[in-house]
Model the fold of this input.
Amino acid sequence: MHHLPLRGTRLAVHTRGSGLPLVLLHGFPLDHRMWAGQEPLADQLRLIVPDQRGFGASGGAVPESVAQLADDAVALLDGLHVTEPAVVCGLSMGGYVAQHVAARHPGRVRALILVDTKLESDTPEARAARRDLAGRVERLGQQIVAEAMIPNLLAQSAPARESPHRAAIEEGLRQAILATPVATIVAALAALGDRPDMVAPMRQVRMPVLLVVGEEDAITPPACLERALETFPNARLLVVPRCGHMMPLEDPGTFNAAVLDFLQAAGH
Ligand code: MLT
Done:
């Protein structure tokens, strides 16, 4: 891991492998560790896996907007001297950030991979729920987020619950959530609630797009990605059985194979 001074803060970033750069942007309120199952991709790609502003080892500043996190990701590429367009992949919140990278900095993105995420902005009810959660986190701490989110993050069908890795995955998620500062969680909830609708900007995206979703995703169900498939001019969709909102963590082998297959089909 190294720290890069950037845009008024310091971002922790893990890099591995060489070749085509692949940026992996984590979900809320997690950190780079959710991409541990993607390490084998470093045999063929240059993995760039940051802790985004305020998360993981990138503490100190809090996230102010999804657009800011997108500009951070591009500043990170600059800091790592990555000048060629990168493959940008994000899960959920990371997917919102990846969409903003594609909209704001299209020349820096060779291909886009959106996982367990959506293009639409929050409904008023979703925004109110975020405000409510932020208030409870301020009073009661991160534990409340772990309790509220973990049951929704993973697939709940019997085969998924009986997986030998299940307990370790839940514990990893709990640790990441409990390690995220309250100030980051509160600021990120506001930034997520304020994020703009990306349906119209994504209609203009010309790069190849891979959409991936767990069939049992309870937060951004397959219908979200099915709508996205209709929006992008050049996208394909993979719905993965026995997975929930953390698809790449729940079934890394299927995810990694899908990424390599997509990049090969896109001529990389
Ligand atoms: C995430 O998993 O990153 C969040 O659930 C995204 C969101 O709350 O919209």
Summary: The mean pLDDT is 96. The pocket of D-malate is lined by residues 27-28, 92-93, 192, 219 (CB under 6 Å).
